[in-house]
Amino acid sequence: MSDFTSNFWSIYVAGVTLAGILACLLLLIFTARKKVVSTTDNTTGHVWDGDLTEMNNPLPRWWMWLFVITIVFALGYLAAYPGLGAFTGKLSWTQKGEYEAEVAKTNEQWQPVYARFASMSIEQIAEDKSAMAIGDRLFMNNCAQCHGSDARGSKGFPNLSDGDWLHGGSPEQISKTIHDGRIGVMAPVAAAVGTADDVRNLAHYVLSLSGSPNDSLKANLGKEKFAVCAACHGMDGKGNQALGAPNLTDDVWLHGYGEEAIVNMVTKGKMNEMPAQTGKLTDDQIKVLTAYVWGLSNKTVAAR
User: Fold this and answer.
1) Which residues contribute to the annotated binding site for heme c?
2) Pairwise CA distance, residues 300 & 302, whole Å
3) Within 13 A of 244's CA, how many CA atoms are on the CB side?
4) CA dihedral angle for residue 153, residue 158, residue 162, residue 163, rounded to 10 degrees
5) How many H helices and E strands in the chain?
6) Residues 53, 41: contact at Cβ < 8 Å?
7) What are the TM regions of this chain, as residue ranges (predicted)?
8) What residue numbers does the annotated binding site cover?
9) Domains 101-181+275-302 and 185-273 share a fold
10) What CATH homologous superfamily does 185-273 map to?
């Protein structure tokens, strides 16, 4: 661990960089002074393919000065910009700073466009076609990687178009999810449930809650074991949006369907994270994106 907290690697990188530049300079000096013995006809004596003779002409001066200029440029660059280990350069330039400046400039240019939506409610924005076109681009650039271009999600990534919400589907809750992110944790509870047979019986009971195919005998045996799950999912299995606990009665399976998937979840648990978009998106962009996502599951309103 000390290798990552000491200055060793910074000094090492700076030393290797400067040594490389110095080596190039010394090579130029030594080769410029070295006298190569040649034959009387100014050749090296090397011949290829019978008639291709290597001449012993010196390196052109302009070419040599190009190497010198390159070395001078390299030293000037390293003085101005980061390149010598932890040295930040006299200009204090960073990729992060350049990125943030470009983002700030772009946001400033787009501010007049978003200003039109400032006084509008989420429902009103969802009815605005130009706003939804912007929301679609925001979704494609920031959300589609996980939730899919059609917003229907995939295994482990929620479907945003079906009205089934872990943390609530109101505009306020969607905005909070986008702004702050979410962390969902399903703790492994197999030890609290009991034996491996108890876990499988519980899995069948969970399947029965949504009317999914199940073994009724095993489901009856697993019903009492559901008390372990009820703390989060409720005694009726309808979930708890305050905790992000899924509704187990609606036949929507985020992490896989069937006995084995449920057994695996109970045994190993699961943790999912929705990254916060604050800092990446402006408040105005989050508002438009919220309206777009809200409209996906409220198509009747959004289509007016």
Assistant:
1) 143, 146-147, 186, 229, 232-233, 274
2) 6
3) 17
4) -160
5) 15, 4
6) no
7) 12-32, 62-81
8) 143, 146-147, 186, 229, 232-233, 274
9) yes
10) Cytochrome c-like domain (1.10.760.10)
> Do residues 171 and 291 touch, judged by C-beta distance below 8 A?
yes
Find the largest Cα–Cα distance for the chain. 106
Rounded distance between C-alpha atoms, residue 202 and residue 246, angstroms:
16
Q: Which residue has the higher pLDDT, 34 or 148?
A: 148
Write the burial class of residue 99 (CB in 10 Å: 0-12 exposed, 13-18 middle, 19+ buried).
exposed
Annotated domain spans of the chain: 2-80, 101-181+275-302, 185-273
Q: In the structure encoding, which two tokens stand for residue 201, read together?
A: 């019986």
pLDDT number for residue 60:
81
Q: What is the pTM of this model?
A: 0.74
Alpha-carbon dihedral sign for residues 199, 201, 206, 212? positive
Q: What is the pLDDT of residues 50-68, one digit of tens each?
A: 888 888 777 788 888 999 9
Structure tokens at 39: 């034959």
Tracing tokens 């929301």 back to the chain, one arrives at 135
Query: CB–CB of 294/118 below 8 Å?
Result: no
Q: What distance in Å separates the CA atoms of residue 34 and residue 125, rounded to the nearest whole number?
A: 77
Instruction: Give, in degrees to the nearest 5, the angle at Cα 112 between 131 and 108.
Output: 110
Which CATH number describes the domain made up of 101-181+275-302? 1.10.760.10
Asked whether 175 and 290 are in contact (CB, 8 A), the reply is: yes
- Cβ neighbours for 300, distance < 8 A, ≥ 6 positions apart: none
Q: Is the pLDDT of residue 267 over 90?
A: yes
pLDDT at 68: 92
Structure tokens belonging to residue 245: 């606990």
Q: What is the separation, in whole angstroms, between the first and last Cα of the chain? A: 60
Residue 150 confidence (pLDDT) above 50 = yes
Tell me, what's the pLDDT at 303?
Answer: 47
Q: Where are the alpha helices (DSSP H) in the chain?
A: 2-5, 8-33, 61-80, 95-115, 122-126, 129-142, 144-147, 171-180, 190-193, 196-209, 216-222, 227-233, 259-268, 283-296, 299-302
Close Cβ partners of 13 (under 8 Å, ≥ 6 residues apart): 84, 85
